[in-house]
Amino acid sequence: MSHPTFSVEPLNSNHVREGFNSGSEVLDNYFAVQVGQDIRRNITRCFVAIDNISQKIAGYYTLSAAQIPLPGLPEVITRKMPRYHAVTASRIGRLAVDSSYQGKRIGSALIADALLRSSTSSMAVYALLVDAKNEQAEAFYLHHGFIPCIDRLHTLFLPLSTISKI
Fold first, then answer.
1. Cβ contacts of 2 within 8 Å, gap of 6 or more
2. CA–CA gap between residue 133 and residue 76 (Å, rounded)
3. Residue 7's closest CA among 65, 54, 64, 63?
4. Which neighbouring-strand residues pair with 97?
5. How far is CA 4 from the centre of its chain?
6. How wide is the angle at C-alpha 55 spanned by C-alphas 57 and 23, nearest 5°?
7. Backbone angles phi, psi at 122, to 5 degrees
8. What is the pTM of this model?
9. 7-45 burial string, b = 16+ CB within 10 Å, else e?
10. Tens digits of per-residue pLDDT, 40-99?
């Protein structure tokens, strides 16, 4: 019987974060120093992709509650929305893959996991929201079907209704 190579689970104190290196000092420092405090303050949740053989953390993402102002969505979408000032969303605050696992679709798996967790939340969530840190990250999210928000550079969203199309 074959086992999946990676599994995604909530970050806990048994996970070894030392040595995680995505190539982004900001993302690596956040994961090493800040994420635990944000989890304890109930600001975010963090999920990690674990290599099932080595038990090494291959990647992580954070997920928190958010809103997308209605004017930030394309008109084709807002026409179908109730006249609220914003729609609910889950926000991927940070997403990083360890450099030794890059190119192995870990980032894609983390997005899929965030979509699934957002769609099965007890809270109503319309979309997954992300603020890409640069053009390369924005291209990654665009490749996965995310849609740019209007007038918000590098901010993109993906309606959860996309799950039924995957």
1. none
2. 26
3. 54
4. 59
5. 21
6. 25
7. -75, -10
8. 0.90
9. ebeebeeebebeebebebeebbebbeeebeebbeeeebb
10. 999 999 999 999 999 999 999 999 999 988 888 888 888 887 778 888 999 999 999 999
